[in-house]
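Hello forum,

I keep getting stuck at the same step: I have a sequence, I want structure tokens, and every attempt I make locally crashes halfway through. Rather than fight my setup again tonight, could one of you with a working pipeline run this one for me? It's a single chain of 248 residues.
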Amino acid sequence: MGRILCVVNQKGGVGKTTTAVNLAAALAIADQSCLLVDMDPQCNATSSMGHEPTVGHALVSDAALSEAIVDTKQPKLALLPGSRTFQDIDLLATSDDQQANRVRKHLDSVFDRYDYVLIDCPPSVGELTQTALTASTEVLMPIQCEYFAMEGLTQLIKTIKKVIVATDGRLTFGGILLTMYDPTLELTREVDAEVREFFGDIVFESVVPRDVSLSEAPSHGENVFQYAPRSRGAFAYTQLCMEVLQRD
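Reply #2:
Ran it on my machine without issues. Output:
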């Protein structure tokens, strides 16, 4: 059975989409068949893969999910494009159990085709994120190494625990990832120590440094391995991929 990782944080600009895109690419390079699902109305994951958002999101359609999945320039990595259509966003974000179950069944229908499914969520703890969590088996939380890194996490963790109970334990904590890491800054070291002390072994040993290659790659419709395979960012996501595989 495949693993569905929901990449989530209630704050924007923490490297959420960057992590979803590049971890998916790293897993594909590691010979793991992978599907990247864009559930963020901004559709940055879709454009990062060199594709355009769709008119309608496949997760709210009655059609087979496989019909909407597209190939990418990265072998073994497929994409379910996002949509900016307000009606689809509203449907995905509804608190209706029937809609949440539809999303879950859609993703379950492609389990046997992929080793990993990664879901890029919007920067919120709203209904859209909760729908994604309900459909997932694991949560991966990127946390930026900044002063307010821990702020708001209590609400997110409460939401995650609520979904864990509602899904009878299907959802688990997959890991916390420190991003925009600069070891020369005292603040970074302080945040690192605080997060690891609070969350313990759930925090990945791998950290993602500040690297311009990670910011530039999406503008070329590429992941960091295609754009700058020898960069620090590429090395970081390779290390993260190895940890994710070890936690299987």
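The domain at 3-246 is CATH 3.40.50.300 (Rossmann fold). If your local run keeps crashing, start a new thread with the error log.
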